[in-house]
Amino acid sequence: MFIIEEELKKLPAKPGVYIMHDEKDEIIYVGKAISLKNRVRQYFQSSRNKSSKIIQMVSKIRRFEYIITDSELEALVLECNLIKEHRPRYNTMLKDDKSYPYIKVTVSEQFPRVLMSRNMKKDKSKYFGPYTNLTAVKDTLELVHKLFKIRTCNRNLPRDIGKDRACLNYHIKQCSAPCQGCISREEYMESVRKVMDLLNGKYDDIIKNLESSMYEASEKMDFETAAEYRDLMNSVKHIAEKQKITSDEDEDRDVIAMASDGEDAVIQVFFVRGGKLLGREHFHMDVGSGEERPQILAGFVKQYYAGTPFIPKELLLQYEIEDAELIEEWLTSRKGQKVYLKVPKKGQKEKLVELAEKNASIVLIQDSEKIKREEQRTRGALKYIAELLELDDISRVEAFDISNTSGFESVGSMVVYEDGKPKRNDYRKFKIKSVEGPDDYASMKEVLTRRFIHGMDEQKLLEEKNISKEMGSFTKFPDLIMMDGGRGQVNIALGVLDELGLNIPVCGMVKDDNHRTRGLYYNNVEIPIDRHSEGFKLITRIQDEAHRFAITFHRDLRSKKQVHSILDDIPQIGEARRKVLMKNYKSIDAIKEASISELEQLPGMNEKAATEVYNFFHKNN
Asked: Cis link prior to 344 (omega < 30° from 0)?
């Protein structure tokens, strides 16, 4: 038994990370400390300065654990990783999980390529970005290939020069065909240099050269070529206009500011690369009551830069944040060169931060209604259902359904919703093993029994190994079970739970004669639901999802069964040859009509196998 007062006495005065668990053993908060002993004890000491969020969180703590580290920096890194992995309820959480594209120049190759990349790797390539507008990246790449005729193929050059024909890009004048030796490496590298000038924002020379070529072609009465140069020049100007000059300094920096209404926060980031504003993006964060703005900003910096592949030299912040020097040290170690966190007080940099703050405020106002609507259709809908069933709180819902066709290949489905949203990683499929024929009640009993016995076994195993229950796939039990049906299905579920000694509320999703949801069956009573409520819409979505998931699984099994019953029973035909047959013939009838000589020509087939297939379908003829 975990006695908090006793465990507090055992805390070491060392740096590390502490992890708070609630009564369901879910991780609800992760924090770091220079001294675990001092920091964790503070939560359980009476103080008037505690925010309502902290007071509420402490009331839910049933146990805590901690991990000792060698330094505060290691604790910071571990804290970021654990928050990202577990997404605890009481941590200020970054809602968005966005990945930004880069333009990658493979300068380590003899004949470099220019590609889009979602990840920035240490592969000796040159990266430009990140870009917030995917369309702009595609437009830029298209321009690069038209203007500089850089190759896009993955041929190994110069080794493969002359081995294959030139590709279509060469014939449409979007590649200089180094694979055919049509351009020397020196000339090709000059084009690559111009590409990197373009990506670095050096447009003037390119525009002048294009303009000169356009006039020259026009004077020669070659108006078609002149028009091509004109279009290329306009494309370069279009891209150049998207990059606003913000500084004479050739630096990379992110400008970060925020706006908050007490419950939600919007963080605005301006991406400045080489002194030019390449783009901007906003991020939503969940915040608790009493959370100070510098704390929200610090939470964003730690979570965002723990995941982004590119770290600029400088972060311009709206507020001074806690652990600024430690975060600087961490970012410096990640980047491999010094990173600075600054709060500008005057000049152009301060104006940039103010501009970011104004943009954050605008987004917060515009998105507040959208956020509220999303909240109503998810957590608000769960709250409605909880009130309807007189339950304290609902976070995780599991719904079950059975699918069969006249008893053929009965299957069960389990879908999971957390905070009103589907959690597809936790969905599970069950192939019914112990029931013959179309017996939905017996099938449902098997599914529920297997689900919860598996979960209990996992919990026991993890406890024996002293591993958090969060690591198991079945260990997390629902706050509410929803059955696709009425009294019969509910009683089956209650019977299984009673046998296993589990106490989980169960309700049935009852449908009318037109197969539409009409109410919930709970505690031997059918409870009507307002059809216009968000709770009703959520129940319908859950019911439809459970049914869809079961039907899809059942359809897949039937398809595999049909293929198996015919092809896998043929001697000499294993999985590889079966795939070859299905790939080359659209139907079983087409395979039947094939001759031995035709079958023998297929990849992986020989005369013996072809004969076996032919004889299998013609032995009774």
From this structure: no
